[in-house]
Design brief:
Maf protein, 5 helices, 7 strands, 31% helix, binds inosinic acid
Length: 190
Amino acid sequence: MKLVFASNNKNKIQEIRHQLPSEIELLSLEDIGCTEEIPETAYTIEGNAILKANYVTEKYGYNCFADDTGLEVDALNGAPGVYSARYAGEAKDANANMDKLLTELAGNKNRKANFKTVIALNLNGQQHLFTGIVNGTITTEKAGDKGFGYDPLFKPEGLEVTFAQISLDQKAQLGHRGRAVKQLIDFLKK
Ligand code: IMP
């Protein structure tokens, strides 16, 4: 069976391809000739994952899954959430995003936050959603140089270091994306 992952992120594709049963052939957007930018105009993380998966299924006719991730901060009523990538502007600059977050939370004692990944899967006419969540806190300064995005500011529950201070393997195991992907893989294996 052919299954499209609505992404061109080679790292994500390789990681997931590696875990799928061999009868599933995983295709990227490039593989199916989808070169246009898929609109991500929904107001929720779930909504964007669904938009992307539906775009491919409706326009190209494939079974498909898509993911979307955001950082939800309690004291900011869930912001930056679905706008995590462009929190400080269209440049999608990770440092500027982190600086803005630190400014917004300056002096605030409530540092609770969570990362959430939603995967929407369109399979044989049915849609399934898988959600991976990691709870944690926002630190008061950046720490670590691994990972990407908001990792230097996010300390997951149960660890005394940020996501940017742990190995890729460790993050894949206890991270939000890893948790959502595991549910998807378990479902596809059934
Ligand atoms: P995407 O949906 O995977 O493209 O993620 C949207 C945005 O959320 C990214 O541009 C990052 O700012 C942030 N983000 C997503 N995943 C992570 C992560 O694992 N660590 C830190 N930031 C992340």
